[in-house]
Amino acid sequence: MTVEDIATQSFEGGAGALVPAPPSGARQVWRRLRGRPAALAGGAVIVLLVLVAVGAPLLAALEGQDTTSYHAGLVDSASGGVPLGHFGGVSGSHWLGVEPGTGRDLFARLAYGARVSLGVAFGASVLQVLIGVTLGLAAGLGNRWVDGLLSRITDIFVVMPALILAIALLAVVPGGFPRPVLLTLVLGLLAWGGFAKIVRAQVLAQKSLDYVAASRLAGSSPWRTARRELLPALVAPVLSYAAVTLPTNIVSEAGLSFLGIGVTPPTPSWGQMLSSATTWYQADSAYVLLPAALLFVTVLAFTVFAEGVRAALDPRAASRLRVGTRAGRRGGEVAAEPATAPAADGPAGSARTTGTPNGGGTA
């Protein structure tokens, strides 16, 4: 029996039982992710928010309201439009109250606002990944001049104040252009530099490996080599960075809408609602707290989930996840067994007690 065979044994109550080898690929990532309850909780919140955004029309119809209908009878015109009733006019017809001044239903506007905020963030992230991966591959696989040119362009976009440039671009675009689409394009076209630098560094590291060199010596074109050999190795770092970038895009969209150059009424957006709520924080605090709380919970959920995904995709994090768990204790027993087991006759027994895979002495 070899050392590899011994490493798959688990001893419980003095009896040896063979256990299957650890799963690989997606199963291994899921197994590591399950060891992080905070990441799972963040993922559950994200799924709930996505369901709310996708099902916004159904939820609004279930409540019996929409995002544009004014209800003048639900606000007090004598006090400037403060909602009548407690907690911003919460009732059976308006589950989260109404908007000050207009009487529009807050639940419907928040649900539709999730569509805009999450849609812009997802769309911008996809665009950043596509541009960054393409230019990073081109820089890593190109010659010295191509690499130098693309690297300098990437550096410009990395150090460029993207938010200020986005404000300038959004201010000059005609108002008839759909603002959510414009926000997606602006954020996606200005913030891809981080992806390009990560991909270029990974490609330069992978180019010197034997399987990539063998593919190129076999006559594969650079892009065929990139598609078959390099892209699978880029999934983990790109996905990890995308998970971190997505909450940044949510905050950027909210900030631009808060400044009045993002999504404009009557289209609902959490940032745009916060912008209009600044004059009502004393008279109707619920109107400020609801979109602010949703933004906080969304960004927190994405940040925690992104950290969990990064750790799950990092093979070096596997041992840390098992520390102090039952799997970690069983792993310690497996590691200790070869050194304490009695020697067996023959080469296998010798390898079991005195050898290592590298022939370096006692384990």
TrEMBL record:
It is a multi-pass membrane protein. It comes from the Bacteria. InterPro entries: BP-dependent_transpt_permease, MetI-like, MetI-like_sf, OppC_N. CDD domains: TM_PBP2. It is found in: Cell membrane. Keywords: Cell membrane, Membrane, Transmembrane, Transmembrane helix, Transport. The chain crosses the membrane at residues 38-60, 116-141, 153-175, 181-199, 230-250, 286-306. Residues 114-306 form the ABC transmembrane type-1 domain. Residues 327-363 are annotated as: Disordered. Belongs to the binding-protein-dependent transport system permease family. This is Peptide/nickel transport system permease protein.
